[in-house]
Amino acid sequence: MSRLLVYLVTVIFCVTKTFAQSEPFYFIQLSDPQFGMLEKNKSFSQETKIMEKVVAVINNLNPAFVVITGDMVNDGEDQNQINEFKRICTLIKKNIPVYVLPGNHDLNQQSTDESISCYMDEYGYDCFCFHLNNSCFIGLNTPIIFANREEKEKKQLVWLEKNLENSQKCNHRILFGHYPFFVKEPNETNRYENIPIKKRKIYLDLMDKYRVSNMFAGHLHYNAMSSYGNFNITITNSICTPLGEDRIGIRIVKVYPDKIVHDYYDLDQIPSNITL
Fold first, then answer.
1. Residue 211, Cβ neighbours under 10 Å: how many?
2. Tell me, what's the pLDDT at 23?
3. Sorting pLDDT into bands at 50, 70 and 90, what band is 22?
4. pTM for this structure?
5. DSSP 8-state symbol, 220
6. Which residues, including other chains, have CB under 8 Å from residue 8's CB and lie 6 or more apart?
7. Which domain, by its residues, includes 56?
8. What is the average pLDDT across 143-170?
9. Residue 99 has pLDDT above 60, yes or no
10. Number of domain units in the chain
11. Sheet of strand 214-217: strand arrangement
């Protein structure tokens, strides 16, 4: 069993874990390593070099946990790409939990039953929920929302609302997913980059009802931020293959009892220590 799973317990098709900690803390989000993209599936040597540097940073900073918001590989059917991504993750210190979420490249654009089954065989879960220092962290399988996999998405939605309802005594509710609900405006038209508006409204209403403060996503391969009332969406650049002006990097998120503070750092400009 992969070390990616040692911190996780599967519940239906999702994972729940609870931690206890009394001090402010920080975690790291990175997105879209997409092993194989740089050389169009001929090799993933460049992604390996980048991710080895990222692992060194993670091990030095020793965050409370790491979340990788999807597209771990470029071709979800390429076992060599998957194996190399998982090998890299095993280099992260064993005391640092690593949570991953599916992207459209890990499944496929249609999120077929076969692709989901293969993903589950590899990673063991496709969503998660845990509490740390009175904050609730929830990761979603957003490709099934985008692809309108109605039955699977409905089960996840019921699970999501239950966890949100049970987290109302927490200081924060923070969401993770590959697809952002929207990029610039809540009512923007449907496109490859966002969740279709009919589904989007359901989730945005939930975010408002249960006072979710933040969503951290990927998918775009560049940094972007937007908001819907008090719900803030932060999209983080690809760690290996940027498609905009942003250089490759990671996001460091600081969690305090009364606020969430985050910054994006270029890989060659990450501080050697983090002050809370």
1. 15
2. 81
3. low
4. 0.93
5. S
6. 15, 17, 99, 124, 125, 128
7. 25-264
8. 97
9. yes
10. 1
11. 10-11, 14-18, 128-132, 135-139, 172-176, 214-217, 231-235, 224-228
